[in-house]
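Note to self: keep these together.
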Amino acid sequence: MRGRFISLDGIDGAGKTTHLQALHAWFAARNLPVLFTREPGGTPLGEALRALLLDPATEVGVRAETLLMFAARQQHLETVIEPALAAGTHVVSDRFTDATFAYQGGGRGVAVADIAQLEQWVQGCLKPDLTLLLDVPLSVSMARIERNRDKDRFEQEQSEFFTRVRQAYLAR
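Structure:
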């Protein structure tokens, strides 16, 4: 039996890490096979691209940023997610394509049609069986980012960026 694919999404500071811990406990209590992963990331290539994309010193254009997200996703799907699902393992991903529509689309202004075309090319008909969107007011998100960690390249954006990201998530 094929595994189920679950994605967990939301703006930075929405509580994904906390909820991922709860999901881990839920799967463990039921002794269900599960793989936890993240995007960008999940593979050596994906982790290298993640480091590059999150580094505040990285200068990258909006289109290149979007393409790098999909490059990481393609490798992730091909080498990790699809084989796990085929083997009957459930996959829980910290972010997936909804994040691209929100961050690169809503936040950066990449056309939804362009992202949708890349989504179709890279994923075909593969989509999560369930997406959990964590939504918090922007003030909560920003307060959590400020107190919890050094800011990465995305977290250094202004509140207007995160307002657009949140609106894109809610629209999806």
